[in-house]
Specification:
Length: 230
Amino acid sequence: MGTYYLILGAIALVSWLVSSTLKRKFATYSKIHLRNGMSGAEIAEKMLLDHGIKDVKVVSTAGRLTDHYNPRDKTVNLSEAVYNERNAAAAAVAAHECGHAVQHAQAYSWLQLRSTLVPAVNISSKLSMWLIIGGLILGFGAGVGLGYWVVVLGFVLMAVATAFSFVTLPVEYDASNRALAWLKNKHMLSQEEFKGAEDALKWAARTYLVAALGSLATLVYWGLQIFGSD
């Protein structure tokens, strides 16, 4: 299993590098103030309006990196900094979250699939490791018995979470592409501002990719432990 630990360590290192680079990029682009003077909230409201979406509200939410779109109550939730600030980073995040609202309005298939998986993932993320550990305690090594099937159930739930992480990739990349296309076509940003927004969203998307690969590596590890190298 030395190869697995080497791969997992490499993924952890890449994850740290991507996360650190993302924070640095956003700090840099937060200093590029928009020439149009629009806040993140105003950017979001205009993007929604331009797409004919009138039933989605843009609201401010406490904390940092808390930006998200909630399809259940149709709200674009922007962190306080993104909601109020008027820079390239805020514009990028606000437009990206509105990209999810556009996906919802247009019944984007990958978003629908991800939404369908959410209830199962909420359960699997909490129970998978507990079931695997519980199965081992119940005597997994003794052969095909209660312990074995408990471990297998935990593995299946872990696989659901891994599948969710990969389904998330096209959803996030597409939302960024929609955001960047709108920002460019509507001439919302100057060339320098647009390059900053584009770079910020690219690095944000890479965090999801690294997370998906890490989830897959963990799934493969437990698959080998449970079912053997065969």
